[in-house]
Structure formats: C-alpha cells, structure tokens
Specification:
Blueprint (H helix, E strand, L loop, with lengths): L15 E13 L4 E7 L2 E7 L2 H8 L6 E10 L7 E12 L18 H6 L1 H4 L3 H23 L3 E2 L5 E2 L11 E4 L2 E5 L4 H11 L1 E9 L12 E10 L4 H18 L16 E3 H8 L10 H15 L3 E5 L22 E6 L2 E8 L4 H10 L8 H5 L8 E7 H9 L20
The protein binds aspartyl-adenosine-5'-monophosphate.
Catalytic activity: tRNA(Asx) + L-aspartate + ATP = L-aspartyl-tRNA(Asx) + AMP + diphosphate
Pfam families: tRNA-synt_2, tRNA_anti-codon
EC number: 6.1.1.23
C-alpha cells in the first residue's frame, strides 16, 4: 500500500492509502471516534466507526506511533479537507510513561525548564517544530544567497590551538596532553581562506564559556560567518550583509511567522552618534544592552526600520584584527548590526598587512607567538578584506518573539545545562 503524508490526503480522495505517524489526539464521542494523526507534514483526521477499531483505539495513548490504512473521503471540516475512513490501525510503538506536557493543546503550556528537560518530546509540538523549520530555512537562504554570489563554503576545525575573540571566555580542553580550545569563532580560518578563495562562508557551531546567565547568551551557538576580499572598507561588507539578510528572510517565508522586510538602505549611525542618541555617557567605549534597546526604538521611530548599523566602534574595544580608521583615529572600521534593539551581527574590515598585525598585537601588550600560524598568511600577500558573523539563535529568537534564546535552540548549552 502506498504510504502518503497527511498533507496529501485530499488529493487521494476515493483511494485506499496508508499514513503513519503519532497519535496527536483522540476524541472518543458517543457514536464515533476521531484519531488525529501527526506526521512531519502536519495533522490528519481519521474517522473510526467500527466498534472493534474503537476498542483498539481506546487502549492506544497519545504519542503511540501508528500506521493506518483506510479510504480517503473528502470532508471540508477535516484538516486539509479530507479524512481517512474505515481505518485499520497498526501500533508500531507505544509510549511507556505519561507525557511531560500535553502536546495536543494548541499552545504548549510548560515552564522553560520542562520544555528543555524534555526537549526531544516537547519539540514535537507544532509550535516548536515551526521554529526549527524557520531556522533551517534561514540557513538555506544564507547559503543560497552566498552561493549565487560566488562564495565558497568552508568547514574549519572546532578544536583549535588559540583563542580568537578574547582569552576569557574560551573552553579549554586536554588535547592529547596539550592545551587546546573549542573555537569561539572561525575568525582566523575564514580570514586565511580569503587568501585562497577570495569569498568564503561557514555555517558552524561557536563555543563561548559565557559566564553571563542571560536570555541572549548560549555556551554553544550557530555562527553564520562570511569573509570577502578586495573591499574598499567596511561599507562593502555591510552591503553584503544586507543582501544576505534579505535572502535569508525571503527563504523563510511560509512558516507562519510575520517576518520583517530589510530596507533597501539600512540606516547607519556612527558609534559616537549612537551614544548620543541612546543618551549614554560620551566616554563609553561600547554600547550597553539598554543603549541597544534605545537605538532599536529610534531606528523604528525615525526610519521605520527593524535593522540599524552602528559603525566606527572604538578600536580599543574590538578584536586586534579590526582595521582602525586611518589617520590615528581611535575609532575602527568595526560595525554591529542591531535587530530590534539587540546586537545580531558583528563585523569589520580587518587588518591585511603583516606589520600592522604585529603593531596591533604589540599595542595591546600581547605576545606575537600564539598568533604565529595565523600571521604567516599575511607575509604571503592578503587582499584588503572584511566579514561578519550572524548569531542564528539570536536572529530566530527576535523573529519569533521568544523572550529567551533557549526556546529557539534544540538542545541549549549554558552555564547550568549540558544535558539533554
Ligand atoms: P561576536 O563575538 O560579536 O563576533 O559574535 C558574532 C555574533 O554571534 C552571536 N553571539 C552569540 N549568540 C549566542 N550566544 C552567545 N554567547 C553569543 N556570542 C555571540 C551574536 C553576535 O553578534 N569573529 C567575530 C565576527 C566577525 O567579525 O566576523 C565574532 O565572533 O549574534
């Protein structure tokens, strides 16, 4: 018997078919019973009139995995406009304990710890599933946009020999008796690969030993990294980022979320102006979360935009590889993209000359030696280049209005959680 998906029922009216999935819900009425089956495509209604099948159904709990063969009949009141009748039900696997949540309710009523402790089950709820379908579509859009623009996808190691972002929040591990780290970012490798492919991207995990227990930090997140050569300055990178965001959102239509549009020109503020608008102390070297929120409101009010670029962050607060504004300026060619008042992306033009790296590292009082492998490529000819990294979970959390990044992460890792 041909097995079809729930969504295809209506197109098989009048035929005998088999569907398979989980018992989402049972409704045992006086004269008839309904079984709502859930598969990867959605829900299907099964009408039970035979007393023997009804007696069988009464013994099958929710989330039992079943295969059902029956006759498809058009029914405007059923999900998808058709239902399966005269069913023969085969149970393939029966749950052995009660469910931690009621999956058949339209909204999942559970605390965050319950959602996460039982993630493999709570993720079955259609509201949670939709979030991860959205994430996958965003990543697909990221890849497609960059593939079409001539970028090469790279896969770089996540066990690395040195920290890239800052020494403090790096996970150290014992690597055959030597010290190694979990990569905080593919930063060095993506820059290095500009020297090979000119334009590269990577989709991969990034690890941060984040001591901050906040609603927007994870110890492991998905970093969408881009790096490109032959740029004038950070503005070229920001243009690419705009295209990438538009491509991601275009690919994410159709999952039931109301998605924003990316303006043709995302407003840009210089860091110093941003501090003023946020009402922050002009001596500050970074934007606090409250400043970012105020700037998000400003961008929406003044420009009708959910997105805002802030460029020219002080060099002292950015990573050593960031290109400063020329002429002895204290500002850099580093930028952030704020989305609805939250930092979603960091990027910059990078240094590309060997001597500039040596000077920048020395100016920070750091030793050159740990960076020797990275610096080698800058002795061999590197074009002016820059790039950025988007935090996927932050993007999704803001898009779906989740108040905590953990809600949109399959199996979040944080200060307190390393299981399930
Ligand atoms: P940065 O450290 O700002 O930049 O990270 C880039 C983006 O990744 C996301 N992000 C996080 N998401 C969840 N939990 C975390 N702990 C976390 N930390 C960062 C944010 C952030 O904007 N190498 C540079 C990027 C570059 O210049 O190309 C970097 O890693 O959305």
């Amino acid at each position: 018997m041909q097995r079809i998906l729930s969504e295809a029922l209506a197109s098989h009216a009048g035929r005998k078919v088999t569907i398979a999935g989980w018992i989402h819900r049972r409704r045992l009425l006086k004269s008839v019973a309904f079984l709502i089956l859930r598969d990867r495509a959605g829900l299907a209604q099964v009408l039970v009139t035979d007393p023997a099948v009804r007696a069988q159904l009464e013994l099958l709990g929710e989330e039992t995995v079943v295969q059902i063969t029956g006759l498809v009949v058009a029914n405007a009141a059923a999900p998808g406009g058709a239902e399966l009748t005269e069913p023969e039900i085969t149970a393939l696997s029966e749950p052995v304990t009660d469910l931690p949540v009621e999956l058949h309710r339209p909204t999942l009523a559970a605390t965050l710890p319950t959602l996460l402790d039982h993630a493999a089950v709570t993720l079955r709820h259609p509201s949670r599933t939709a979030v991860f379908a959205l994430s996958a579509a965003l990543v697909r859009g990221f890849r497609t946009t960059l593939d079409q623009a001539g970028y090469t996808e790279i896969f770089t190691p996540k066990i690395v020999g040195s920290a890239t972002e800052s020494g403090a929040n790096v996970f150290e591990l014992d690597y055959f008796g030597r010290k190694a780290y979990l990569a905080q970012s593919p930063q060095f490798y993506k820059q290095t690969m500009v020297g090979v492919f000119e334009r590269v991207y990577e989709v991969g995990p990034a690890f941060r030993a984040e001591p901050s227990d906040t609603a927007r930090h994870l110890a492991e997140f998905l970093s969408l990294d881009v790096e490109l050569g032959f740029i004038e300055d950070q503005r070229d990178v920001m243009t690419v980022l705009r295209e990438v965001l538009a491509g991601m959102l275009a690919s994410a239509q159709g999952f039931g979320f109301d998605l924003p549009t990316v303006p043709a020109e995302i407003p840009i503020l210089h860091f110093a102006e941003a501090l003023k608008i946020a009402g922050a102390d002009p001596a500050e070297l970074d934007l606090a979360p409250a400043d970012e929120r105020a700037l998000g409101e400003w961008a929406l009010r003044e420009h009708g935009s959910d997105f805002l670029f802030v460029e020219g962050y002080p060099t002292a607060k950015r990573a050593f590889y960031t290109h400063p504004e020329p002429g002895g300026s204290a500002y850099s060619r580093g930028f952030d993209l704020l989305f609805r008042g939250l930092e979603l992306v960091s990027g910059a033009q990078r240094l590309h000359r060997h001597d500039d790296y040596v000077a920048a590292i020395a100016a920070r009082g750091d030793a050159i030696e740990p960076y020797a492998d990275f610096l080698e490529v800058f002795r061999r000819g590197m074009p002016p280049h820059g790039g950025f990294a988007i935090g996927l979970e932050r993007f999704v959390a803001r898009l779906v209005g989740a108040s905590n990044i953990r809600e949109v992460t399959l199996f979040p890792r944080d200060l307190h959680r390393v299981t399930p």
